Amino acid sequence: SRLVQPGSVLVLAARSGDELRALQDELTASEAGRAGLKVRVAVADVGRTEGLEAIIRSSAEAFSENIDRVILINNAASLGDVSRFTRSFTDMAEVDSYLSLNVSSSLCLTARVLQAFPGRGGLRHTVVNVTSLCALQPFRSWVLYCTGKAAREMMFRVLAEEEPELRVLNYSPGPLDTEMQQEARSRTADPEVKIAFSDMKTRGQLLTCEESCAKLMKVLLEDGFSSGAHIDVYDV
Amino acid sequence: SRLVQPGSVLVLAARSGDELRALQDELTASEAGRAGLKVRVAVADVGRTEGLEAIIRSSAEAFSENIDRVILINNAASLGDVSRFTRSFTDMAEVDSYLSLNVSSSLCLTARVLQAFPGRGGLRHTVVNVTSLCALQPFRSWVLYCTGKAAREMMFRVLAEEEPELRVLNYSPGPLDTEMQQEARSRTADPEVKIAFSDMKTRGQLLTCEESCAKLMKVLLEDGFSSGAHIDVYDV
């Protein structure tokens, strides 16, 4: 809460309105909320054009002339079907749909935010891409996830090259104790990769979202990263 | 032609039937054709499921039990609109369509070929992805191309990890004196990148397709590359 500047607004976007509103209530009642943080929600599927529009609309309503920093965090992603190997992906519609949600949406949302809130003297932008080790290293039976993360990371590297005024960060949050990890442990086709995920869980090596987000906050506050860089939670 | 083994078949796929058939005639009349190479054509748009099916159908017709090596060369690609910067890509349909042609199609074609011609004792597969320096390095105003090439390269790296029996090569052919380079020189939005392409042309640094393909042939014949590796024409 000591970090909450007057006039700060958090716009949360997700598909589930109930969960979003519960989080909104929780944050509004928190120390940050009591310190003045406004929390807005956009019930939106980022995989659809209407979803991107809803996010921009909510953000525009929340925006004021006093705001001096826009931070966009591109976190939405899906794991894809990890229960099969690359040679089983013969269906264009399945791959198209995966890439649309995981790649196109983050490009188009980022572009729309940059257009909707153009930089001016006092307004700066930071764009975060939530990336993964999978953007850099291939993992067996994770072809969609690795491909999507590699694509996104390159996309944000191009953006960083194009716009030196922007701060662009590819942040790899580490293995988080979330539903996605549960899916990874239970559904991964490759036995070695599957066991590696199970072992991380049983050895207590998964990070909480709070731990990883605290590291992300540290990186953003110190603001010393090279724009476009890939920064891993374990490097912070 | 000294490399043409009896029973060798080349299946060429592209959208333009006239140009394909002209090439078929040229190759059939060439030294390789006279040495026994059969040339088949599949008029097909790899961006469409029917196109992939047409390629598999033509390949199945060409296949015989004597064949001991299937080589799939994933070359089809488009440049994307390089006349604009990342912040202009707000249209999901445009990005979806680009990724479908440039990423999904190569994944699904490769998967279909592997399924249609399963490896057996005497049958081995080599899969080539025509990649680019753009898969590794960001270039300003080339966001679609860089993103697509990074995605493809990771996809083939995953395939290589999954299937040790396969030979997977990411081959970067260098700057070729083709229509795509003409488009790059004339339409690239970023002035420095644009000039770099013009300079390559005026200094005679563009490679002919024949030069680059000869290097690719050398790599394939020597067969010493590490499966999944990125090999650049200048490293051969």
TrEMBL record, chains A, B:
Entry EC no(s): 1.1.1.153
Subcellular location: Cytoplasm
Keywords: Cytoplasm, NADP, Oxidoreductase
UniProt-listed Gene3D superfamilies: NAD(P)-binding Rossmann-like Domain
InterPro entries hit by this protein: Biopterin_syn/organic_redct, NAD(P)-bd_dom_sf, SDR_fam, Sepiapterin_red
Highest taxon of source: Eukaryota
Keyword Repressor: no
GO molecular function annotations of the record: sepiapterin reductase (NADP+) activity
Pfam families (UniProt xref): adh_short
GO biological process assignments: tetrahydrobiopterin biosynthetic process
Record flagged with keyword Oxidoreductase: yes
GO cellular component, as recorded: cytoplasm
NCBIfam families assigned to the protein according to its UniProt record, in alphabetical order: sepiapter_red
Assembly description: Homodimer.
Protein family (similarity comment): Belongs to the sepiapterin reductase family.
Protein name: Sepiapterin reductase
Source species: Oryzias sinensis (Chinese medaka)
